[in-house]
Amino acid sequence: MKDQSCSHSGLPRHDCAKDDNGQIDVLRRIENAFFDLSRPNTGPRRILVEKLAELAHTGEAFSADDLWQSLRASHGRIGRATVFRAIEQLVESNVLDRVELCDGSHRYRVCGGSHHHHLVCTMCNRVVDFLDCLSDRKFDEIGRRHGFTVKDHKLTVYGTCDRCLKSGGK
Amino acid sequence: MKDQSCSHSGLPRHDCAKDDNGQIDVLRRIENAFFDLSRPNTGPRRILVEKLAELAHTGEAFSADDLWQSLRASHGRIGRATVFRAIEQLVESNVLDRVELCDGSHRYRVCGGSHHHHLVCTMCNRVVDFLDCLSDRKFDEIGRRHGFTVKDHKLTVYGTCDRCLKSGGK
DNA sequence: ATTGCTGCAAAACCTTTGCAAATGT
DNA sequence: ACATTTGCAAAGGTTTTGCAGCAAT
């Protein structure tokens, strides 16, 4: 079995002024996430930060392998494991979100840091954020009803995006 | 990539009188799911149906491997692939739910057939159902706002169950 | 110097696939 | 007889691990 820790402590570790300033903020958040827990500002990390800032900008969702391929294409050699290890840390630090697709596979995505959920296109896997959700009191109530102390939740909505509808989705 | 189909057509294929009659109903639902699409009432399927009725009763969540181990322990040889193939069909037929744990792994669970969501204990992986959710109009509105046609959604709540809290969970 | 990261290759993990043999109808 | 499922073993895809060497502090 995998790491049972579920340390979405809920709140982002860094203040995230809304993304109005674009990549700068995201860049800083990613750097912070790396350098909070570990010191070295290494080459691989720099190119990772750079690439992730790009991906944050486009909002693209990617698989671990996508990211690896993309990094080794634009820059030279980088280890697969390095990418996996970085993703793990960044998910932990709430810089990346793990998004479940409806087929059970998953992608990652640079997230804004504040609480949100995902709307996923089942045809092209495009992911969009939204804020709507049940209230915290409601979640507490659900928990109370079953003897649970609620810590976190995840809401994912699946559908077809306009682009795919046009290009002949059922 | 995996099978991109997302054929939670949403509605259960068989009427599911609430589980007041216990295992009988569940048993029938599982049998129907198997025998709708394919004929042979084979040995492996019989023991699968039997075991799943048990699991439905206890509400236990299990991995594909758990189920395989358990079947080969109680009955003789059964192929790993047979179990995986059965799970696939039963998920498709809305007899089993796939539940994501907070670490990204997943379990299966015999479900009642009607729309519901899951409350998952992050310590023992116990799973409990609940019904609360946003309204359909709300989901439609979320979709409309982003140009999506909403088909399905999934809400999973993570927390600590009373049993685990008592036995020293943080 | 010390500490921790990196790349590689191997291993682990989980799931799917191909196919001959067995089974149900 | 026929069609389908089964079990096995092999392959597949993805993620993790071990470790020697390297880089940053």
Summarize this structure as a short list of keywords or feature phrases.
homodimer; 170 residues; alpha+beta; Arc Repressor Mutant, subunit A; Dna Ligase, domain 1; 3-stranded mixed β-sheet; two-stranded antiparallel sheet; globular; disordered N terminus; DNA-binding
Instruction: Give the number of domains of chain A.
Output: 2
Any low-confidence stretches of chain A, pLDDT <50, length ≥5?
1-5, 7-20
Seen as an oligomer or otherwise, the chain set is homodimer
Q: Report the CATH superfamily of the largest domain in chain A.
A: Winged helix-like DNA-binding domain superfamily/Winged helix DNA-binding domain
Name the beta content range of chain A: 15-25%
Mean pLDDT value of chain A: 82
H/E series of chain A, N to C? Answer: HHHHEEEEHEH
Description of the structure:
The structure is a homodimer of 170-residue chains. In chain A, 41% of the residues lie in helices and 19% in strands. The model of chain A is unreliable at 1-5 and 7-20 (pLDDT under 50). A three-stranded mixed β-sheet of chain A has the order 4-3-5. In chain A, strands 1-2 form a two-stranded antiparallel sheet. In chain A, a hairpin with a 5-residue loop joins strand 3 (117-121) and strand 4. Chain A has six helices and five strands, in the order ααααββββαβα. Chain A folds into two domains: 1-114, Orthogonal Bundle (Arc Repressor Mutant, subunit A), CATH 1.10.10.10; 115-170, Ferric-uptake regulator, C-terminal dimerisarion domain (Dna Ligase, domain 1), CATH 3.30.1490. The first copy, chain A, starts with 22 loop residues before the first helix and ends with a helix. Chain A is of the alpha+beta class and 170 residues long. Chains A and B meet through helix 5 and strand 5 of A and helix 5 and strand 5 of B. The structure holds a DNA duplex (25 and 25 nucleotides).
